[in-house]
Every structure is written in C-alpha cells, then in structure tokens.
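A reminder before we start the practical. When you read a complex entry, don't treat the lines as separate problems. The point of joint prediction is that each chain is placed relative to the others, so the output describes one connected object in space. Small molecules and nucleic acid strands, if listed, are placed in the same frame. In the example below there are two entries. Take a minute to note the order of the lines before looking further.
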Amino acid sequence: MRRPPLVVVLIAVIVMALGETAGAVMSQLRPQTERYALARIAASPAVHGLTGSAEYDDEVRARTVFAVEAGLSFFHTHAEGLAPVMLVVATLVASLVASRRLRAALYALVTVGVLFPLGYLGYAAAVLTLGRDDGVAFAERFMLTPLGGFAILGVLGLLVALAARRAPVS
Amino acid sequence: MVRFKLELARWARGTMLARPQVHGLVGVRDVDEQIMDEALTRFDGGLRLFHMHAEGMGTIVILTTMVAATWAPTAGWRRALVALLTVGGAGYPLGYLVWAALIPYRGVEDGKRLAEWLVWIPFGGTTIIAMWLLVAVLVMQMARRS
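Here is the predicted structure of the whole assembly.
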C-alpha cells in the first residue's frame, strides 16, 4: 500500500478529531448548548416565526432546538464515519491509480469531500441564524449538497479508475 | 441484541422491579409502567449505542494507528500515540455497555453518571487528546517538509 499525500491525511484526521470533540461537547455541554440556542431564538423572534402565543412559541422553540442538536449529532456521526472512509479511498487511490493526473484529481475531490460533515455544523448555525426551514434549505443547498457531491465524485472516480485498470496478463 | 432482546428486557424489568426505590416506582401500575418503559428504552438505547460505537471506534483505531505508525517522528511518539489511540478507542464504547448494565441497578441518571466517570470521561478524554496529538504530529511533519 502507498500512502496518500500528507495534506489529505491531515484534513481527514482533523475532521475525525473535531467529530470526537463534538461528541464530548454534545454530551457534557448539552444544557449550555440548549440555553445558547434558546437565547439566539429569543434574540430573533421574527426570523423564527414566534407569534407571542406561549403554546405555539414553545413548539417552535422545541423544534428549532431539536434541529440544532440534530445538526451537532449528525456532525459527530458523519465526521467519525466519512473521514475514515475518505482516508481509505485516498489510500486506495495512492496504491492503485497509475495516472498521476487522475490521482491528483481524485485527491482534490476526496480532500474537499471529507469536509462534508462540517456542513452539519453549518446546518446547526444556519438554523439559528435563518430559522429552521430556511436554515435547513440553505445548509442543504450550499453546504451539504456540494460537499457531499465532491465525496461521491471521489468515490465514483476511484471506482471508474479501478474498473478501467487493465487486468494483468497471466 | 437481536437474538436475546426478550430475555434482556425481561432481566432488566425483573431487576428494576426488585429495586422499586431506585427507580421511583410507587406501586401504581399506570405510573410504574411508564417509568419502566422509559428506563427500558434507555437500556435498549445503551446497547444500541455500544454496538454503533464499537463498530465505529474499532475502524477509527485501526486507521489512526496506521497514520501514527506512518507519520510519527520517533519510535517513542509512535508507541505513545498507538497506545493512547488504542486504549481510548477500545475502552470508550464499553461505557455504553456499562451504562446499559447499570440502568436496572442504579437508574438511568445515576447509571449515566457512573458510566461517565468510570469510562466515558477517562477513555473518551484519552481518545480526544490522542487525536489532537496526532493532528499536531501531522502538522509538524508538514511544516518540516515545507
């Protein structure tokens, strides 16, 4: 096995380390996270569609806090799941793709794709800044879809490169 | 979890019924059933989280120790990183098993507090420190190269 470029390894390990740290933050600082989210919602009532009716507003606040916590939770799980996958993909690219140009292109896709989990941090922030529905739509359109697209293209590119390899003549 | 789901639930339920004070059971069927349902859901959740984290952390231990073995600058660094990543990563998921096992005996919150201090904080903390040390090693290697 050959090793992938150091920058790819570094970014994948940073994403894994962030994911680990986010898991600890989620569990140890959950009340603080909830308080912060509630304070942000209270600071922008119009953005979150608060009406002044206690019952309705409580429901809106609960759904928004849930979305923020879901964003953090998805960040944790995707950082721990996707970064190792991308590291393995980059190692396979280094070991099995012969063309230098193709390798460089695949490394670029994998390096950007490994940032996909950060889209969920953006998701949590966007929900608080833009409101639940607009925030989710913003994060999906501008963060999760492009970054996820790069990750998918990286894996598909590796598949195509492997399929196009000539079998050794025995 | 799949094969022994019923037996596990039966054991947890029996253990909880034998400790009504720990779980705040009052002897009123409607109230007690709700309390026990919630505790059993957490018990099941603890087992599921153990399954999920064991699968995830196992993979991460293999990959991060490979990275450490490849990029650590000295044998001492390599040994320290591999030891920290392995001990932290292998121990952390066991916290969910400990939590699930403690729920019938100590209740949901007390079980969680014990699992936190016995397993999650020491082993999870070790993993987090090891991961950021690995990041520092990779950054040093990058700086050295450039």
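Discuss with your neighbour: Helices of chain A lie at 6-28, 30-43, 54-96, 100-113, 118-130, 132-164. What might explain this?
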